[in-house]
Amino acid sequence: MKKSESSVKHATNRRAFLTNGMVAAGAATMGAALLPGASTAFGREEDDHAPVTKGDIAILTFLSALEQVEADLWIQYAELGGATNQGLSTIDLELNGKKIVTGLAPNYITALEVLDGDMPQYIADNTDDEISHHRFLNHYLASKGARPIDLSEFATLPPSRVSGVPPTGRLTNLKQLTVDTTWWTRYRSETANPDFGGIFENAVPDLAKGKHPAIPVDDGDLILNADGSIPNHLQAIANTAGFHFAFIEQGGSSLYPALAQKVTNLEVLRVLLSIGGSEIMHFQTWHDKAGNATNITDGDLSFPNLNSGVDPNPNGTSANPADDFQTNLIMPEPTLFLNAKLGPVSIIRPTSTAQGGAVASVVSFVDDGLFLDPATNKNTGIVDVLMRLADEADEARRRF
Fold first, then answer.
1. Helix axes 54-81, 232-260, angle to 10 degrees
2. I want to staple 127 with a disulfide (CB 3.0 to 4.6 A). Which of 74, 95, 134, 390 is the partner?
3. Four-point Cα dihedral 276, 278, 282, 288, nearest 10
4. pLDDT at 90
5. Mean pLDDT, the chain, as a whole number?
6. Model pLDDT, residue 277
7. Does pLDDT of 47 surpass 60?
8. What is each CA distance from 287 to 181, 245, 249, 292, 329, in whole angstroms?
């Protein structure tokens, strides 16, 4: 999950944004209201006896939908680049009781391991986590008498054609991505915060334009050089994936606290804080690994040396490129929060609805190219459904 700086500008222009989408279908995918006569609490001691409101259900439903989207993209990464073993502990990835086959592209794994030797294991674990988020949120919705969400009818996008990949339709397209990397400089800035209107430069400018694969499209992408070395094209695919991992997960780091401010029921708040914390752990891991992407060029895509002390952006505006781009500065730099008079503080950012809320999340996923149908060059109908659910989540208000 992710919020791009360019996405924020479009978050309020919903009608214009939706013109690239298809008309949504399927009332069965909805579910933002309590069912009549249903229990609204587990009755634990920590329950504050506040009701689970329609707003709470709208937030939970949207989050479950977005976690299903995340699970879909992570499964694709795991199929091709996930670990096949982890020492004495076995890989036990499953979706709806069916085993997920991992590690089908060994040369892709080799390229991912240039970023870190544990990349395949982390991919498998992140996949497992996102599957669990969607499953738990749906179970929790059902326990409150609300309808679980299922977006499977929109799983129509073609997967990778690498040998062995199940030829089933997918919710997301990882072969034509436009990856925003402004999160890199956002978390390094000590003077700007997106919630205060801060604007940030990309770490990899070329990723933010054009359409780039983050997975091998077919077996041809996996061919090594004659000497057995990794060709720039395959390494560029792995590097793109590395930055895309962080791009996705930093969004959840903001989305959960942004929506947590809107819930009424204490137990629902606990759910959001607990899952949101795991998203932050994911982001921190991938932020670190992305910094190991090698300085290579593949056609019109170049990965700059971020430790050169030079702003990689044409006509860059960084006053201190060492502070803004150095790869090991992955801890959130103290910056403005709430009121500048309070002084800088290390925080997750953004956490406002406008910058980090549900609509901003959907817009950012579409800007990323996740729902682009290569056959039509338009977004699938999932976009209309997600945007409606996002509107309902953002409109939720905490009740006292």
1. 160
2. 74
3. 100
4. 85
5. 90
6. 97
7. no
8. 10, 8, 9, 10, 10
* Total-model pTM: 0.90
**Contact of 334 with 344, CB cutoff 8 Å:** yes
**Please, are residues 149 and 31 in contact by the beta-carbon 8 Å criterion?**
yes
Residue 400 lies inside a defined structural domain of this protein: no
261 backbone φψ class: left, alpha, beta (φ>0; ψ -120 to 50)? alpha
399, part of any domain: no
- 308 is written with which tokens? 């050169």
Is 342 within a domain? yes
| Averaged pLDDT, 47-60 | 89
Question: Which residues face 335 on adjacent strands?
Answer: 345
Domain count, the chain: 1
Domain interval for residue 67: 5-394
Cα 253 from Cα 183, distance rounded (Å): 11
Nearest-CA neighbor of 21 among 396, 394, 385, 391? 385
Instruction: Give me 326's structure tokens.
Output: 């150095």
Q: Determine, yes or no, domain membership for 266.
A: yes
